[in-house]
Amino acid sequence: MSSTSPIIVALDFPDAPAAMRMADQLDPARCRVKVGKELFTSSGPAVVEALQYKGFEVFLDLKFHDIPNTTASAVQAAAELGVWMVNVHAGGGRRMMEACRDILERRSNRPLLTAVTILTSLEQEDLQEVGIDIEPMVQVQRLARLTQECGLDGVVCSAREAKALRNALGDNFLLVTPGIRPAESSADDQKRIVTPSQALENGSSYLVVGRPITKAEKPEQALEAILATL
Ligand SMILES: O=C(O)c1cc(=O)[nH]c(=O)n1[C@@H]1O[C@H](COP(=O)(O)O)[C@@H](O)[C@H]1O
């Protein structure tokens, strides 16, 4: 089933039963789901298959970052799972991203391939500490341009950067934006946050939302409330 909803719900749960309990409260026509490092490490491909069986398109968010051969092989393994989207870190560089694109291009059925620019949990001081002496916006633009040159489908970035990227990179480049927080929500460990409606206005293609939905008393209602603002 292919949803027209821009929402991707992050299923950050410790195990498959907890993730499936959440999925049971969601409708695959109203959102996609994201399987990340915690859930995949505990539960592996079986949980991806179980979510697909329920009709969800799955974003496998393992943020691969390694030498080109290793990363491309991991992306290939993700493609074998039939996931809708898979991601790598743009910081892995041109040859890594091109190897991933090349391995997917040989397939008839391939997932969308996106690259994480600068994590939404980081702000300027964090970048400085790891030797990047420029604003997040500038580094995100640099990595997004590189990602586009390498032939990937889009980037993961903050919706704060979406407007500039949309203008610079055109309408056909996917902007997947986590760090989404409805006005009344806690920021948690996120730093570069944006509300759902502002994110779409800025040009985001997909909004990744975790805790504001999964920690809500009524997750389905929290999702519908967000959709109603869009
Ligand atoms: O690649 C991601 O999905 C990702 C990139 C990023 O820069 N920031 C970010 O928060 N994420 C993921 O998006 C989700 C956000 O979850 P919440 O902060 O609970 O809404 C988490 O699963 C993160 O792993």
What is the total number of structural domains?
Answer: 1
Which structural class best describes the helix and strand composition?
alpha/beta
Order of helices and strands: EHEHHEHEHEHHEHEHEHH
First-to-last CA distance: 22 Å
- What would the average pLDDT be, to the nearest integer? 97
Walk me through what this model shows:
With about 230 residues, the chain is of the alpha/beta class. It has one domain (about 5-230): Alpha-Beta Barrel (TIM Barrel). It is built from eleven helices and eight strands. It has helices at about 15-25, 35-45, 45-55, 70-80, 95-105, 125-130, 135-150, 160-170, 195-200, 210-215, 220-230; strands at about 5-10, 30-35, 60-65, 85-90, 110-115, 155, 175, 205-210. An eight-stranded parallel barrel has the order 1-2-3-4-5-6-7-8, surrounded by seven helices. Helix 4 (about 70-80) packs parallel to helix 5 (about 95-105). The longest helix is centred in the middle third of the chain and has 14 residues, at about 135-150. It is globular and about 40 Å long. It binds orotidine-5'-monophosphate (OMP). Orotidine-5'-monophosphate binds near residues 10, 120, 179 and 209. It catalyses: orotidine 5'-phosphate + H(+) = UMP + CO2. GO terms for molecular function: orotidine-5'-phosphate decarboxylase activity. Keywords: Decarboxylase, Lyase, Pyrimidine biosynthesis. Belongs to the OMP decarboxylase family. Type 1 subfamily.
